[in-house]
Amino acid sequence: MLRYLPLMILLGVVIYALIDCATTKKEDAKHLPKIAWLILIVLFPLLGSIGWLLAGRNRRRPAGGGSGGGTGGAGGGRRTTWVAPDDNPEFLKKLGDENNTKGDENGDDEGDDDGKRDGDPRTK
To answer: Are residues 19 and 49 in contact, defined by beta-carbon separation less than 8 angstroms?
Structure first.
């Protein structure tokens, strides 16, 4: 069983490189056109796969680490780093808007003249 391990590892690397190359955008392929990388990976599995993984693709890493995601920010473009919900001003605004609309629908926002909500156990 162990004698097949190198072959299985090579097969896994080749399949990963093929899928990675096939799903990469044209403009992200470096040094050669994307189709040339695919041909290299098929014709020379070991060298083509290693070449693609090391030098064939632009690997964009966010400046602050972490995974990409979310939109927004001050510039209005894509955010490059992950932001916790309690630090995301867009999320907090949306949450506040949802709370305001729920309170208006239930009629719970109306309080006494003292500014406290009706039914608050701390006020009684």
So the answer is: no
